[in-house]
Amino acid sequence: MKVRLDRWLSMLGVCSRSEGKDLIRRGAVRVNGQAVLDPGAAVETERDTLAVREQPVDGRVIRHVMLHKPAGLLTAARDRKQPTVMDLLPPVYGSIGCMPVGRLDKDTTGLLILTCDGEMNHRLLAPGRHVDKVYTARVAGRLSEKEQRAFAAGIVLSDFTAEPAELEILTAGEDYSTGRVTVKEGKFHQIKRMFAATGHEVLTLHRSRFGPIGLPADLAEGCWRELSGTELQSLRKAAGME
Ligand code: URA
After folding, report:
1. Domain 2-57 has CATH 3.30.70.120
2. How far is CA 201 from the centre of its chain?
3. Most exposed residue of 25, 145, 158, 160, measured as fewest CB within 10 angstroms of its CB?
4. What is the position in ligand 1's atom list of the atom closest to the CA of 104?
5. What is the pTM of this model?
């Protein structure tokens, strides 16, 4: 992305725009190893290297993250009262505008993608896009073929009819069962509402896949990493952005 040098510093959360102007004029900012004294100088954020007061700064402003969300955090860019998933990331991800792709409920765990690419975010969530999401739910009561048929037929909810979804029964007991559900939509409380409509309260809910990206077994709860080039490519493909 091409931006002015002073804006680059503020986007990265290094300092405010006016502090940046000052730092630049004092020769404390190097781009590709050279001190640049003009705050309005054009830089390429994903290509140029940056150092402030002799310290290298990662200047990328387009980043994509996978996070293993624990229960207890809101999926939101910010909240005045409650902790959010952004609290798990270094502040620079907030400064450059990384946003969650869709939402997991506060008590839901599992895979959450965050990206600075607003278009990809929007496209991945578009109703016609049909990006598969896979959840494992522990529910009250015994799951059977009856629920599988209901999920496959599409469940009528108060404000919309959920599209046909696949329910695989992993365990079925008198008191509790677990099921793996694959949905193509992402409506508010969708999985909980689908189970509730078939008479089962969801006790825990975990997302293991979002489109082409699966939650890696070695990414512990509360941990995150940036997407690899291959993962990003597959996500862009799923968003129809090749
Ligand atoms: N469906 C739900 O009910 N909750 C989530 O967090 C995600 C999907």
Report:
1. no
2. 26
3. 158
4. 6
5. 0.94
Domain locations in the chain as residue ranges: 2-57, 64-127+213-238, 133-210
CATH class of the domain comprising 64-127+213-238: alpha beta
Q: State how far the Cα of 95 lies from the Cα of 86, in Å rounded to an integer.
A: 11
Nearest alpha-carbon partner for 170 in 184, 182, 188, 162: 182
Of these residues, 48, 58, 87, 105, which one is catalytic? 105
Q: Select from 151, 191, 203 the residue to mutate for testing ligand 1; criterion: most ligand atoms less than 8 Å from CB.
A: 191
| Tens digit of each residue's pLDDT (9 = 90 or more) over 67-98 | 999 999 999 999 999 999 999 999 999 999 99
Q: Which residues line the pocket of ligand 1, CB cutoff 6 A?
A: 104-105, 108, 189-192, 205
Residue with tokens 């409506």: 187
Q: Any alpha helices (H) in 154-228, and if so which ranges?
A: 190-197
Q: How far apart are CA 30 and CA 36, in angstroms?
A: 6
List Cα–Cα distances, 232 to 12, 59, 62, in angstroms.
21, 19, 12
Topology of the domain covering 133-210: Alpha-Beta Plaits (3.30.70)
One fold for 2-57 and 64-127+213-238 = no
Residue range 179-188, pLDDT digits in tens = 999 999 989 9
